[in-house]
Amino acid sequence: MTSSLTLVSLPLFPLHTVLFPGGYLPLRVFELRYRMMVRCCREQGAPFGVVTLRSGHETRQHDQPLETFHAVGTIAHIDSVTHLSSGLELIECSGKDRFRLTHARPLPSGLWVADVQLLAADAPVPIPADLRHAATALEQVLHKLEQPHLDNVSEQHFLDCGWVANRWCELLPMNDHLQLQMLELDSPLLRLELVTDALERAGIASQ
User: Fold this and answer.
1) Got the DSSP string for 10-59?
2) How far, in Å, are 66, 67, 110 from residue 54 at the CA level?
3) What contacts 24+ positions apart, CB below 8 Å, involve 166-170?
4) Is there a contact between 46 and 77 (Cβ–Cβ < 8 Å)?
């Protein structure tokens, strides 16, 4: 995909979280607007967009102003849907390409849709020797967490700057603002350098 590729009327899911490419996102869906969105996306094999809230709530509040959200988000692909009970579903999603909003509008149902411009995907960048300890520490942490959605992760993932940096951005206690700054960086090497500096200052990884 190139940075000039656009998507029209992409449904949006504003959340108090930041989804990174290659990331895992489980969501409990109960609002009618999002249940309809999930059904349509599944039927059409289409994605939706995850954007981070600036103001407002994830659940629609009566007599409250419309939510506002940041302009940069991530495409989410629905991997599975589990019906937990009447009106409640668990969807498991994976992060794909980053995008920038060009125009967003609410539908009568309360669902937001937007025209977006896809941002260039991270180029594969091998991790330089002086940053390898960040990848080693990540591998140890993920092994201890034993997360099922990481069962298919290969050793190649731990050799790539972008993938390692993104996983640390999900794990470290960063606020939304800092996570969004990391998401917007076009250089996966710079992203990993900044993450590694934070890891070293926190004593999580050392050379």
Assistant:
1) EEEEEESS-PPTT-EEEEEE-SHHHHHHHHHHHHHT--EEEEEEEES-SS
2) 11, 8, 17
3) 166/20, 166/21, 166/22, 166/23, 166/191, 167/20, 167/22, 167/23, 167/138, 167/142, 168/134, 168/138, 168/195, 168/199, 169/18, 169/20, 169/195, 170/20, 170/23
4) no
Angle at 51 between CA 177 and CA 121, to 5 degrees: 90
Q: Per-residue pLDDT for 91 more than 60? A: yes
pLDDT of residue 99: 97
Decide if pLDDT at 4 tops 80: no
Which tokens is 108 given? 């009568």
The tokens of 125 are what? 């960048």
Q: Can you say whether residue 45 is alpha, beta or left, with left for phi > 0 and alpha for psi between -120 and 50 degrees?
A: left
- Which helix (H) or strand (E) element contains residue 184? helix 176-184
Q: Looking at this protein, which amino acid is placed at residue 78?
A: I
pLDDT in tens, 94-137: 999 999 999 999 999 999 999 999 999 999 999 999 999 999 99
- Tens digit of each residue's pLDDT (9 = 90 or more) over 128-183: 999 999 999 999 999 888 777 777 889 999 999 999 999 999 999 999 999 999 99
| Cα–Cα distance, 5 to 117 (Å, whole number) | 6
